[in-house]
């Protein structure tokens, strides 16, 4: 019987889909969680990557970890905790989800950190893995369609919508990213693999206007130019991956489903 696969962040938007797809593939799955509730068919194991509590026990006997847990402030520290435990447990493979642009968005000033700290956190976590002795695979994906939908919903609550000029996004469906992570988890460690993006790149206002049209709403847009080196890099296409537009689902298809 194959060794269990541990999924961190296994109850989140991406992690839950990873768990579901692993179970569909017949893999034995553990989910690292603070909660007593979780997906049917998976074994729930208590653990906290911010403190390290329970991590050694969670990794005992595990062959592969799919690391989906993280935050803008905690990605590096949590990954460092996981890697240290994985080295002790002689874990065979860590699969990590990063973001397109992690190595191309310069996060230097205060404004950069406020708006784009997520990219720096992901790159720092990548470096923890790269400098470790743990075999790993790193997938950089663009923003999720579902996350962009949440942003559009929030913006639509205001009668006036600020729209940063020149910023493009190439959103990809979360389930498509989950499928790729599962493929990596069931394979051999591959290091930094090819990036993954959605099929179409959109300006920020195009995404929001599309949402408003689908919901039959109207709002006033106020364009503005975000300052800082990170924002300039985004305008230059640092978070796009046109040569790896492997996603299939479009923003329009997501909105059509949302409208119904």
From TrEMBL:
InterPro entries in the record: ComplexI_NDUFA9_subunit, NAD(P)-bd_dom, NAD(P)-bd_dom_sf
Pfam families reported in the protein's UniProt record: NAD_binding_10
Coiled coil spans: none
Identification of the protein by name: NAD(P)H-binding protein
PANTHER family, sorted: NADH DEHYDROGENASE [UBIQUINONE] 1 ALPHA SUBCOMPLEX SUBUNIT 9, MITOCHONDRIAL, NADH-UBIQUINONE OXIDOREDUCTASE 39 KDA SUBUNIT-RELATED
Residue ranges of domain NAD(P)-binding in the record: 9-146
SUPFAM superfamilies: NAD(P)-binding Rossmann-fold domains
């Amino acid at each position: 019987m194959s060794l269990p696969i541990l999924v961190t962040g296994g109850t989140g938007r991406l992690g839950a889909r990873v768990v579901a797809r692993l179970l569909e593939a017949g893999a034995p799955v553990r989910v690292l969680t603070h909660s007593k509730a979780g997906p049917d068919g998976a074994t729930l194991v208590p653990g906290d990557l911010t403190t390290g509590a329970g991590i050694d026990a969670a990794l005992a006997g595990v062959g592969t970890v799919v690391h989906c847990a993280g935050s803008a402030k905690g990605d590096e520290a949590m990954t460092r905790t996981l890697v240290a435990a994985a080295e002790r447990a002689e874990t065979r493979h860590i699969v990590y989800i990063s973001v397109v642009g992690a190595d191309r968005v310069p996060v230097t000033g205060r404004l950069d950190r406020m708006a784009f700290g997520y990219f720096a956190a992901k790159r720092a976590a990548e470096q923890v893995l790269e400098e470790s002795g743990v075999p790993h695979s790193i997938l950089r994906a663009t923003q999720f369609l579902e996350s962009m939908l949440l942003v559009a919903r929030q913006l639509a609550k205001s009668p006036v919508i600020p729209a940063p000029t020149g910023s493009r996004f190439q959103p990809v469906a979360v389930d498509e990213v989950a499928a790729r992570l599962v493929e990596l988890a069931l394979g051999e460690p591959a290091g930094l693999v090819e990036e993954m993006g959605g099929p179409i790149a959109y300006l920020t206002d195009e995404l929001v206007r599309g949402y408003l049209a689908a919901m039959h709403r109207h709002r006033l847009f106020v364009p503005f130019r975000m300052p800082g080196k990170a924002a300039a890099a985004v305008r230059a296409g640092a978070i796009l991956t046109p040569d790896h537009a492997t996603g299939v689902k479009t923003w329009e298809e997501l909105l059509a489903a949302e409208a119904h």
